[in-house]
User: Fold these one by one.
Assistant:
Number 1:
Amino acid sequence: NEVLNDTNGRIVNFFKVLRDRPDELIRKIELTPYSRREHYEAREASSCSVEDARRWYCDVQQGFLNKPRGGWLAHHSRSNVSKVGLSVGRLMDVARRISSTHIDNVPAEKCIKQWDSKGTLFYVDSHYPSTDQDHYRGFSQADFERLIEQLSSIKGRAVLSCYPNDAVPKSWQRVDIKTNCSASSRATGKREPRTECVWITP
């Protein structure tokens, strides 16, 4: 079994619609113009699951850093329209990839507990503790430490990604990835260096 889980209901809805009604969703996305007004109107949720999936995709793909509810991305030196077009072209491949995947919308703790076994590998893309991440804001250092405690006692194994954090046991294998923070460049004009970490449980 393969499981995708997220606490953001709109993300979960997008992948469910892409899995179950890919032709309808992709056609609606292909007909969505690259437009500032379209982007900002897409922030509002729709009661129609297919339309809400289209809106969420539009909000993310036309937004700065592909962040929900971010600013509209318009850049004089590159074609953002072409970038979105390329991503749309890959959606059917994604739909096939997740055709037999379980898609859930529960807290990580519950998901890990339900699917844990000796043969399970979890990939946990943790929220960054004590940072403003839109839907994921409010995730504290204490929350992160509880996550580490749970992952330390699972039957299976886990791959965890986050910024450096002393709460992660030294016994876990760690790989550092040097990167730059694009968000900082908008405020300072410079891309500040950051370190992303990937840990693997013993």
Number 2:
Amino acid sequence: GSCSPVITCGSLYTDTGGTTGGYNANARDTTTICPDVAGEVVTVTFTYVDLETSGLNGGSNATGCWDYLTVFDGMDTTATNLGDYCGEESGDGGTAGGPANELAIGTTFTSTDASGCLTFTFFSDGSTQETGWEADITCNPPLAGCTDDCFAEFDPAANSDDGSCVTYICPCDLQGIGLTTGTCTDGGTDSDISDDTFMITLD
């Protein structure tokens, strides 16, 4: 593997080929991007995407991608994993990635970690290399709001929770209580489900 040079706010994040060439075969690269000013957070917005996909199934490490970026919300690869991503929107069109891993032009990642940093790892196999990626890096103060999408007050733009999450709307989060299957029935009668009683029936 290799570590990329330090990338600062206002600069461009690209593959090893830069803006004029493709990426390397058998890459195992790690890049961490942190804000220049303490207390700010990094946002990375992809403006060019051409990473070899493999369709809905298969690929390297069963990701649906032959070559892919993995995104971590923090200073290193022990931080929260935000997923594996690939896509060929900027290249020859190729095979579309699956919906869970499609990296489209305009895709944005913003750190919610206390460090304000994002970490990216890049994996490529030994065969086809596409033309890579380009992404704009910006840094700004965190935007406060409700960051939990299980609440009606959820603000998708917020990256710092301010305690404004009040009305819970995800009562049937079976995985959240350790279940993988089942049926959840709402016992309430009004639109505010935050105070309702729910019955879970196992399949």
Number 3:
Amino acid sequence: AENILMALFRNIERGQTPEKLAENDYLMKCMMRMLATVREAIAPAHALLLDHLAKILAEIAKNPSNPRFSQFLFESIAALVRYTVAAQPDSLAAFEQQLFPPFTMILSQDVAEFQPYVFQILSQMLELHPGAAGLPEAYASLLPPILTPACWENRGNVPALVRLVRAFLAKHQADFKCVLYYTYTVLCTQHRHNRNNRTKHPH
């Protein structure tokens, strides 16, 4: 399976631009299905595969051009996380180390097409942390930004954001008041924004 996956990467990575990399969604769909087929057996090769997936993600995020390719890429990442961590729980830290930089870039540069996928995989990784471990610091730093009105104005983000907030609460009940405070701030800000718009543009 590893040889087949590497052959797929070689074909995909022939593209020299973000658009060319994402041109053939069939190749990325094959990768996703291969990972779903071999499941935990792929764990020994996860580091090499993750390196390729993360680099492809960072590149195509510069100019998203093929939604189907993007979907299959994120589903491949999610499958690799799921099956590898099931076989090797200690590998979770490596996934976070490799994925947080492109994820942070996507969120900071407001790559709207990718944000729902990023929130879903962040939720997935956070849920895989042992409950007794509490809320990892890297995730805690994401809480204020994801509760800003701008994140929630994109309806496509909402289901993934709800899952992520639930994961926050499940991992650190002590932060419940913090979450409520930020949520209250978001709602108040959004209410003022809507009221100002009505004032400026009365019917």
